[in-house]
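To whoever is on call:

I kicked off a structure prediction for a single chain this morning and the downstream step that reads the tokens threw a length-mismatch warning. I double-checked the sequence; it's 420 residues and nothing unusual in it as far as I can see. Pasting both halves so you can look.
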Amino acid sequence: MALSIPGLDADLLTQVRNGDLGALEKLFRAAYPILIDKAKEVLGDDTAAARVVERLFPRLFAERAALTTPAALEEMLDGAVHEAAVRERSRLAGIRKRDDASAKSSAPAPSADDVWKRISTTIQGPSAEAVAQATEMKDKLRHEAGGHIREMTKTTPWYVRAGAGAALLAVVAVLLFVFAKSGEKGRLQRQVAGLDVRDIKTGTGQRGNVTMDDGTTAMFGAETRVVLPSEFAKTQRGVGITGAAEFKVAQDATYPFQVLARNVIVTATGTEQFAVRAYPTDEGVIVRAKEGSVKVEVQEPVVSEHTLNPGQALLINADGSTAPPTEAQMAEALGYLDGTFSIENKSLRHTLSEIKKWYGTELFLKDTTMGSRMVSMNAPLTSSTEAIKAVEGASGLVFGWEGRTMVLKTPEPEKPGRRR
């Protein structure tokens, strides 16, 4: 059954599209218990279900310009939470197999207050209070380190004192590093999520080449939105992306070029060429270096830093884990740069959504239970006819018209004919 969110109407949706965090919070609180139940249908685990819902809302906020009607938003949330829950179930199964532990968590789902606090922090960055607390902790640790060292000088050998001091200073250094990274991400997040921004975007079935204010060029995939803060090319060169784009960076000795995609910051300091893909329904973020090298920083939930040289690529999962993407993942993620559309062992429901995104052609299933059927296909992006033929062959269904609606349906059995 399709989701129905209490209180969701055109006015609330308009406020969310305009970047009103208060309206997003109202939407979240109304939808949270419903989405938890939806995710639990797949996961059977309150904590895992809450984690799925928590990850969904920052992406929804980043994609808010694409929200058209309350019904479309409910349909999007319905499909997105189901797909995310399936991916989470697969991830958890791998962890349980590795750890030889099959028991599910019995903890109740966290409260809406706790989850919203984390969502708000992800969107806006760390609060001034949190930064102040970190600074206070840093000063306190420095003071205690100094006092502790002075006290130890009375009775403790110098080499023990030196080791203790080094350990405390290492703790301070780690804290400074963590909060510096958090602050860097927070600044870029606030800039791209603010109201004083400019969007460059493509619609359904559209791709395009763009030249930005600093001379950087980009090839956009379909349904891609790149957000440029008002200070772009003036005092910084950081942008946010939802979708897919390949950037050829213009040289600027003063400011590096940075791309924020979900929980990842990609930094180029020269004339590098690299691609990023991060759609809301993707399993993770994919970054590929083509020319030069780029730095990839995973900000949360597991902090890591990577350097990609020409030809190298990295998949960053929602849980912060990283791995080289497979050839199939690369073909699906960035095949548009070569004019191809590729799907490898994905649900038919997901495949039809991708066909709509890249071709602008919307196909419906006559029998919606076929949506879970797994398919693999390849087709040129220049021909929706070839894409329809490919999905017919992959799914075992046939294309037809129901009035003005394009549908895929089960082939009718052949009628016995008269032998000649």
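Update from on-call: the warning came from a stale cache, not from the record. Cleared it. Sanity check on the structure: The longest strand covers residues 238-248.
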